[in-house]
Known about the structure:
elongated; alpha+beta; 39% helix
Amino acid sequence: MQYLPLVALVAVFYFLVLRPQTKRAKDLKAMAAALQRGDEVLTMGGELGRVSKVYEQYVGVELAENLEVIVQKSAIQSVLPNGTIKAIK
């Protein structure tokens, strides 16, 4: 009976911290694997751009005409719906 609070604390920690974190990591990994040319993305640095080239671990992101940067796939925060960049400009 004296271990019940400890077990409850571990269970709460698992459901509130570990489980959502692993789910988020799994979703990010699946999103990075599904990146393809033409996708509009938001990087963790806050840059919006369109994927121009896809490599094994890296992605070429076109930020403006004649301006392309190479970033790691893990630096892509989210894939945006098509047309987002034009709607912002």
